[in-house]
């Protein structure tokens, strides 16, 4: 069933992007898939030749899975502020990954050392919050930042803080993902 779910979710994302570009693409059959009606949180990540091309998602389940994937695919392709909108010429070479997030759990810790010890590299996605500052890294980011100290420093930078920032009011949440990925283009 996992492979089927991945095929459907990737198909939904690809179809949503194609439709926005005015490209004809087959839509996956979803009417009989009741699991797509469940409220869920997802991230859609786009890559080209192994490099990030867009990534947008939701951290908290707030709409049906099929709607969340569709909206996040369009947002990743056309509204990620780090990249220009995806073009029709890029459509066939962009690869799509859909991450289905578990519910976030608050992380209990006394200090930064305790927080770093509690996070599981390669397993946990992390959300950092401090006042108006907020950022997340999916578990997949551990592949580029395998050391907890490095991972946390970059997460702080992403949130607009300094890499060495720490405050007792800083909050961390963890989550896991089930990811579905298209194969790289030849």
Structure, described:
The chain has 186 residues and is an alpha+beta fold. It folds into two domains: 2-101, Glycoprotein, Type 4 Pilin (2-Layer Sandwich); 105-175, 2-Layer Sandwich (Dna Ligase, domain 1), CATH 3.30.1490. It is 30% helix and 27% strand. It is globular and about 50 Å long.
What fraction of the residues are assigned to beta strands by DSSP?
25-35%
- Please state the oligomeric state of the protein chains shown: single chain
CATH superfamily of the largest domain: Hypothetical protein ph0010, domain 1
| Structural class by sheet pairing and helices | alpha+beta
The CATH topology of the largest domain is given as Glycoprotein, Type 4 Pilin
User: Mind telling me the CATH class of the largest domain?
Assistant: Alpha Beta
Tell me the number of helical segments per DSSP (H or I, 4 or more residues long): 5
Give the integer mean of the pLDDT values. 93
Largest sheet: 5 strands, antiparallel
Cα-to-Cα separation, first versus last residue: 27 Å
Give the overall silhouette: globular
H/E order of the elements?
HEEEHHEEHEEHEE
How many structural domains can be distinguished in the coordinates? 2
Percent helix, as a range, is 25-40%
Give start-end ranges of low-pLDDT stretches: none
Rg, Cα atoms, Å = 17 Å
Task: List how many beta strands DSSP finds.
Answer: 9
């Amino acid at each position: 069933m996992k492979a089927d779910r991945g095929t459907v979710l990737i198909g939904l994302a690809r179809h949503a992007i194609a439709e926005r570009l005015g490209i004809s693409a087959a839509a996956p059959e979803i009417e009989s898939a009741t699991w797509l009606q469940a409220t869920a949180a997802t991230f859609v990540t786009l890559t080209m030749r192994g490099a990030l091309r867009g990534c947008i998602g939701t951290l908290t389940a707030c709409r049906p899975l099929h709607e969340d994937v569709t909206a996040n695919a369009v947002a990743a392709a056309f509204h990620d502020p780090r990249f220009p909108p995806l073009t029709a010429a890029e459509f066939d070479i962009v690869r799509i990954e859909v991450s289905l997030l578990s519910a976030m759990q608050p992380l209990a810790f006394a200090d930064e050392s305790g927080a770093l010890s509690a996070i599981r590299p390669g397993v946990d996605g992390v959300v950092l919050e401090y006042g108006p500052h907020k950022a997340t890294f999916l578990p997949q980011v551990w592949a580029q930042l395998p050391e907890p100290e490095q991972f946390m420093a970059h997460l702080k930078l992403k949130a607009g803080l300094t890499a060495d920032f720490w405050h007792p009011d800083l909050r961390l949440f963890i989550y896991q993902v089930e990811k579905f990925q298209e194969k790289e283009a030849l």
